[in-house]
Amino acid sequence: MIEGLTTFDTAAVIAILGMGIVTYATRAGGFWLMGYVTLSPKLERFLRQTAGGVLVAIVVAAVVKGDPAMWAGLAAAIGIMIAIRKSMTAISIGMIVAVAIRYFV
Amino acid sequence: MPYSISALPFGLAFGAAALGVGMTPGEAILMSVAAFAGSAQFAVLALWTAMPLPVAAIILTAFLVNARHIVMGAALYPYISNLPLRQVLPVSAGMTDAGWAITLQAMMNGRRDLGILLGTMIMQWPVWVGGTAVGALISSGGLDVKRWGLDVLIAGVFATSVVGLYRGRDDIWPWIAATAGTVGALLWLPGNWYILIGGICAGLAGLITSRDEEKAA
Fold first, then answer.
1. A31 is in which domain, residue-wise?
2. Can you give the pLDDT at residue B215?
3. Which of B114, B137, B150, B167 gives the lowest tally of CB atoms within 10 Å of its CB?
4. CB-defined contacts A:B, below 8 A
5. Pick from A17, A52, A98: which is nearest to B174 by CB?
6. Inter-residue contact B159 to A78 (CB < 8 Å)
7. Chain A closest CA to B89's CA: distance in Å?
């Protein structure tokens, strides 16, 4: 048995179920809304860029809060992703770079 | 289908990273079952270390990361507008980026039922949940987030998705705006407002630059 398999924190469960509900709302929302209104190109663009901006924000925050090992790991991951477009390889190498720097430096 | 297997390493990574930030295995698995949303789940891990848990920020972040689904669903709608909503809405619960792309392609080629979306869900959901469980099992002995590079794993998921999301010059200004907004929010605002501010800055920049293009055209 995995230890903690049946351990739940109330706040965590509320957060998780809340995530489930809003995620379902976004999945069903596009279909449901289109039955009533049409999504203007502008609103579509706003939603698309908002989603991209959230991802950018998370990366920027990781860089601002991170140590040099994080910077090197992210730089490696981004470089490899641009070069070969394989996210799992890029992330793994980024992790190895950061772990190596933290181990040896 | 090879793409459903691709969910496995990410599921493993999520299970390990979730325990690294202090989630219990049960919570990690519950999240993969209930949300079934890779990038949103990784995104909230960045918030999970705070105590008490910022519940509202976590739910809001999940919404913002998943807001793209609204656009994706809207794009599929013209092909399935003849189907009853009571059939469409339950199936939509399984929509993932990959499943959506495959479904849209199939529908453009003339298919008009949701079987393919349902199929992608049946393939991917157990792989994702199972991967999370195994990842959590492996790391349930306790993991040092930094020593194992799990913080770089979490950030790396987003850094590579940003690269994969790049569609051309239209994206440059929104991303610069998101960066500026995030840095500003980190400097001057407490808590996790940077996620919302970064997203909104990018959205607004997208609107402004698109208007300029219309004028130029």
1. 1-37
2. 47
3. B167
4. 319
5. A52
6. yes
7. 6
List chain B residues with CB under 8 Å of A85: 164
CB A94 within 8 A of CB A83: no
Q: Is the per-residue pLDDT at A71 higher than 90?
A: yes
Q: Are residues A79 and A56 in the same domain?
A: yes
| DSSP for residue B124 | H
Residues A32 and A69 in one domain: no
Same domain, A25 and A55: no
> With a CB-CB cutoff of 8 Å, which residues 110-139 of chain B face chain A?
133, 136-137
| C-beta of residue B178 within 8 angstroms of C-beta of residue B209 | no
| Residues A88, A48 share a domain | yes
Q: Which residues of B touch A48 (CB under 8 A)?
A: 68, 71, 206
Q: Is a pLDDT exceeding 60 seen at residue B62?
A: yes
Average pLDDT score over residue span B63-90: 84
pLDDT at B3: 62
Domain identity same for A5 and A54: no
Question: Mind telling me how many Å the CA of B211 is from chain A's nearest CA?
Answer: 9
Q: Which residues of chain A does B97 touch, with a Cβ-Cβ cutoff of 8 Å?
A: none
**Hey, are the CB atoms on B46 and A62 less than 8 Å from each other?**
yes
Residue B54 backbone zone (phi > 0: left; psi -120 to 50: alpha; other: beta)? beta
- Check whether residue A46 and residue A69 sit in a common domain: yes
Query: Is the pLDDT score of B2 beyond 60?
Result: no
Place of tokens 């959506």: B100
pTM above 0.90, yes or no: no
Q: Confirm whether the ipTM is greater than 0.90.
A: no
Whole-number pLDDT of residue B120: 81
Q: Summarize the confidence of residues B77-91 as an average pLDDT.
A: 83
CB A87 within 8 A of CB B161: yes
